[in-house]
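Bench log, entry 3. Co-assembly request; chain sequences pasted below exactly as received.
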Amino acid sequence: MVKRILVVGAGAGGGLVASRLRKLLPRGEAEITVIDKYGRTDFQPSYTLVALGNREPSQISVGMENFSKTGIKTVKGEVTEVDPKDRTVSVSGEKIQYDLLVLSPGVKFDGQSFPGYENASHFWDMAGSLELRKRISGFKGGKIVLGVTTQMYKCPPVPWEMAMMLDDYFRLKGIRQKVDITVAHWVQKPMGMFGPVISSPVTKWLDEKNINGVYNFKLARIDGDKKQLVGESGETVDYDLAIVAPPHRPPDFVAKNPDLKSSSGWLDSNIRNFRNSRFDDIYGIGDAIAPSIGIGMAGVFAHFQADTAASMVAGDVLGAYDPVPYNTIGLCASDTGDAGWIAYCDFGKKLTVPNTAFPDCRSMGRSRILKLAHAIYEKYFLASVYGGWYQ
Amino acid sequence: MTSQDGRLDDILQKLAELEPTINTLQKLQESGIMSILDAIAEQSDNLFNYASTMELLGAASAAMKILPVLSQIAGMVDTDDLQEKLEHIPWKALINLFTAFLDFVGSDLMSIEPPEGKGKTLKLLSEVRSPEMEYLIRIVRALSTRMMKELKEQRKM
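Structure output for the full assembly:
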């Protein structure tokens, strides 16, 4: 009997799972359907470039209709409910049956839940990046502050990366001396969550670029009247343009379903096989499981989780068991404005040994040639996410 | 000659030009290299995953650290001057000196002759070997023989 495989989310996690499964499973073995609320896959690390006017949305995005080339069905819509007992997923009032379900729904941005968030801009999605582009291009001088509302947000190094890109942007515009750039963050040092190997060089680069830092700063609210970010202890940071990551929350259909969520309130999963602990026909990967398994929110994690989860699902269908082991490496090709920088960390120990302070991180160094790394991976990702390379 | 004959000649000529390429591809196919390339293409989606190891990324980091040094050295070299100096190097004398040194190293070795009827590897080597390959083999054999001698002497003591 043909197995019905449903994949929720067409991002780095869901998109890759679907294309991997299509390759692993003949059409007679499995019917694969992908559900996504936007109906497309964005290369999210390039949102910074969209905000700075260096990329157009069409350059960093592929439409889900490309899945039809490999016989994968698509549904554009938002999932409102998953019933694990009946094996159904509700989308736009319709219930879709599944035999195996892979959940990679990403996160929900909940700006409304944060006091004063309407005064901020952000680049954590396409719409936000396009809106921010207008504000940055019209910015003639003043104070730009980059901050975050929640401890976990997509791409942890990006506030500092964007600060360095803004430095370069305003230098090229010839008005850098009129722009004050500050990162206000809950960590103790720039990129402190990755340990001194990463934090030390980044601190030096930020100093060289005259980028300010306010650390141990836990944002409580944004005061639009006084144009201030206000910390939990009442400390303030003035701004003319506040670029703040919106609150990242689990999608509603996860948050309200005790069968789907872990004790953290996020999507339940595990790093061994990415199966739900209560229902072995449900898998969870991507940003929505990050707080549950204790790793950051980033496309590279979703990518490697997708490789493993797809091999597990294929094993369920075919009866064979040849899993791709979970690769716990996180690789980040950052733009530091005038140059590119690659850092890589192994999170294996951090994920499995309690009280491990930092992942094992290294820096490949910073050079102009590494600026290419981001562009190369962007093209590779967009070309391969729907399985284009082996069609 | 009709225009059709002319086109046929053109096609035959193009085919003749392509013959070495076709032969090379055939050899690659026979040697299994094409199958290896096929496998790499087929696994291209897993390439990023499999290549993302701390060891490989560490090697790439090391290469990135060497690059600026090399580029600095390259930047310091006056290429015109280098070319002139290269032209004045007594290459023939140097090569003679080098070959004399290699002869000395290999002087205590018997010449390498493939045994009759067996030792296909050596036979193959004798067929394809260049003087450089022969000297390389001689050096390796000389070194390994001396190392073995020393080891034997150490054991005796």
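Confidence is low (pLDDT under 50) at residues 109-115, 117-125 of chain B. Chain B has two domains: 1-50, 90-157.
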